[in-house]
């Protein structure tokens, strides 16, 4: 029934590789559940699980996976949430697509933040000046009185 998961995965890799070869990053999504019942559900679940395992196991530089299957589970939702997020047994409602967009967006931001942190240059050594520990006369007096002294900001005060 249908196309074998291995064949689907090979076709996905061809598409992903086009973007990766151009220096792009790829965020692949796993296949979510569908509202099926009986023997057909068993067959579809087995094929989907195999494809999802292949997707999650694929390793390349600049290739990331978001587990949509785990993030938007059909069978563990309440009936109200199923009606809110699923239009039929396979397609999502506008609220469902908003939910997916929010979850994928959060995953994408997390990946970008992780990459930015990873690529930060090492911290520079702080320069120390001879007057850093000096107490200026303007600092004496009543700290709540604005008319007494000056506002002095030293690097040491900011750390």
From TrEMBL:
InterPro entries: GDSL (IPR001087), SGNH_hydro_sf (IPR036514)
SUPFAM superfamilies assigned to the protein according to its UniProt record, in alphabetical order: SGNH hydrolase (SSF52266)
One Pfam family matching this protein: Lipase_GDSL
GO molecular function: hydrolase activity, acting on ester bonds
Name used for this protein in its record: SGNH hydrolase-type esterase domain-containing protein
Organism field: Canariomyces notabilis
